């Protein structure tokens, strides 16, 4: 078990998806792990995966997988490679996202062996209106580790018995939920607070933020995917994102939801 090669592919602007993927990997207790962080960068050439399992983890935006995450995943091809497919969502619903991610990976040659939907702090969460604040918490992490242990055991048993891998069935439907029209918007900047430290530039997954003449931070609304990574990473709290949807989420999705699994 400890000699198993495990690859982890994550798109995780605010860290929740990467956290869950790493905890699942911990539970699998494998000795050889390679991580592919496609949050900002992607391989320059196509990557062909081997026979060892691959963990793929991404967030849910509006019940779907972000288009840019799916685009970057096109760089990876499986050869009947078993995949542990994970999504994280902000305590509302993951709708068709898990199925969408499984379907895309299947088209690229992977075989979804197991899948899970976990809760992570919503991108729109604030101190005043918390939405799944602090998640994944320790209970979520422990659950992820137990899931990982179960997955590696299941996979090993199938390998030893020489069973053919078959796709799992997950929640979701096709055609997928229709995505809402893109409304250009980006976080606002409090120029008096901003120190031009560059933290927001470092975390933006779409390179929508740039420094102009070393004096001003510019955000391209057309490129912004509203992940709010820049808002959460700003050490001076100089960035904010205002949306009426925050109040709706805060008022209607406060009851704690728990992870769901498919094996």
* Helix share bin: 25-40%
User: Which runs of at least 5 residues are low in confidence (pLDDT < 50)?
Assistant: none
CATH H-level superfamily of the largest domain: Flavodoxin domain
The CATH architecture designation of the largest domain is 3-Layer(aba) Sandwich
Q: Going across the major beta sheet, what is the strand order?
A: 2-1-4-6-7-12
The run of helices and strands is: EHEEEHEEHEHEHEEHEHE
CATH class of the largest domain: Alpha Beta
Instruction: Using the alpha-carbon principal axes, give the shape.
Output: globular
The number of E-state strands comes to 12
Category from helices, strands and their pairing: alpha/beta
DSSP strand content: 15-25%
Total number of helical segments? Answer: 7
Do you know the CATH topology of the largest domain? Rossmann fold
Number of self-contained structural domains: 2
Task: Give Rg in angstroms.
Answer: 19 Å
Q: Mean of the pLDDT scores?
A: 93
Largest sheet: 6 strands, mixed
Measure the end-to-end span.
19 Å
What does this structure look like?
By secondary structure, the protein is of the alpha/beta class. It folds into 2 domains: 5-175 and 257-262, Rossmann fold (3-Layer(aba) Sandwich); 188-240, Alpha-Beta Plaits (2-Layer Sandwich). The protein is 27% helix and 21% strand. The protein contains 7 helices and 12 strands. The chain has helices at residues 16-28, 67-73, 97-107, 138-160, 199-203, 229-233, 245-252; strands spanning 5-10, 32-37, 47-48, 54-59, 76-77, 81-89, 110-119, 188-189, 209-212, 216-219, 239-240, 260-262. Strands 2-1-4-6-7-12 form a 6-stranded mixed β-sheet, with helices on both faces. A two-stranded parallel sheet has the order 3-5. Helix 3 links the parallel strand 6 (81-89) and strand 7 (110-119). It is globular and about 65 Å long. It starts with a strand and ends with a strand.
């Amino acid at each position: 078990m400890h000699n198993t090669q495990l690859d982890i592919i994550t798109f995780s602007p605010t860290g929740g998806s990467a956290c869950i993927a790493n905890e699942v990997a911990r539970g699998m207790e494998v000795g050889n792990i390679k991580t592919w962080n496609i949050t900002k960068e992607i391989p320059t050439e196509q990557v062909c995966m081997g026979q060892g399992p691959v963990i793929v983890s991404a967030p849910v935006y509006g019940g779907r997988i972000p288009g840019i995450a799916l685009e970057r995943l096109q760089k990876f091809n499986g050869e009947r490679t078993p995949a542990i497919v994970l999504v994280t969502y902000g305590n509302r619903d993951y709708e068709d996202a898990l199925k969408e991610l499984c379907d895309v990976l299947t088209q690229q040659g992977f075989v979804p062996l197991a899948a899970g939907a976990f809760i992570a702090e919503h991108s729109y969460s604030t101190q005043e209106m918390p939405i799944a604040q602090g998640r994944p918490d320790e209970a979520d992490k422990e659950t992820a580790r137990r899931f990982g242990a179960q997955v590696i055991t299941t996979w090993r048993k199938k390998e030893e018995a020489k069973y053919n891998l078959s796709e799992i069935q997950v929640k979701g439907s096709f055609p997928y939920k229709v995505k809402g029209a893109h409304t250009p918007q980006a976080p606002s900047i409090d120029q008096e607070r901003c120190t031009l430290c560059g933290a927001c530039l470092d975390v933006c997954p779409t390179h929508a933020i740039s420094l102009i003449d070393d004096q001003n931070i510019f955000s391209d609304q057309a490129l912004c995917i509203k992940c709010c990574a820049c808002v959460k990473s700003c050490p001076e709290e100089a960035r904010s994102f205002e949306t009426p949807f925050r109040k709706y989420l805060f008022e209607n999705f406060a009851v704690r939801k728990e992870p769901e699994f498919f094996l």
